Amino acid sequence: MTTPAQDAPLVFPSVAFRPVRLLVISLVLTAAAIAAAAWLGVPMVGVFFGIGLLMGLLNAVLVQRSVSVITAKTHPLKRSMAMNSVTRLAILTVIGLAIAFAFRPVGLGVVFGLALFQVLLVATTALPVWKKLRAGAVQSGSDAERTEGTAPSDD
After folding, report:
1. Gap between the Cα atoms of 143 and 13, Å rounded
2. DSSP string for 108-135
3. C-alpha dihedral, 100 to 106 to 108 to 109, nearest 10°
4. What is the distance between the alpha carbons of residues 59 and 39, in angstroms, rounded to a whole number?
5. Residue in 111, 102, 99, 92 with CA at minimum distance from that of residue 49
6. How much is the pTM?
7. Per-residue pLDDT at 17
8. How confident is the model at residue 142 (pLDDT cuts 50, 70, 90)?
9. pLDDT digits over 69-114, tens only?
10. Which burial class, exposed, middle or buried, applies to 97 when counting CB atoms under 10 A from its CB (0-12, 13-18, 19+)?
11. How many whole angstroms separate alpha carbon 35 and alpha carbon 52?
């Protein structure tokens, strides 16, 4: 018998989220973007790109905090998590688009920074998990080989 989705408990897997590492990567990318944009004659694109990266990092930290607060409750609700996400993303989207509009065309760097941060977030959290899963699969494979080699024989 299975539990209907609406009655299932709210469970979040542990994630290899490292905000300090993401901050360092964001700062390095910001410096590179400012240098490249300055070379092209528009250094403010790099500055706005960095602002977008930092807004993405702020979003990721806020997600981590809201998940820990909501899951600490005795009966966490999916609705509260959804409303929290919608509100946070709406606010960040409005801020990002307002900056992009107010400082157009160089303000579009914010949008590109936000987009690239999402790629960074997925890469920096998924790769360690993937490596751990792969290491577990390799170890289980070697365990299977050892048990096959020690099977009793009919001599």
Report:
1. 26
2. HHHHHHHHHHHHHHHHHHHHHHHHHHHH
3. -120
4. 30
5. 111
6. 0.73
7. 76
8. low
9. 887 787 777 788 888 889 999 999 999 999 999 999 999 999 999 9
10. middle
11. 16
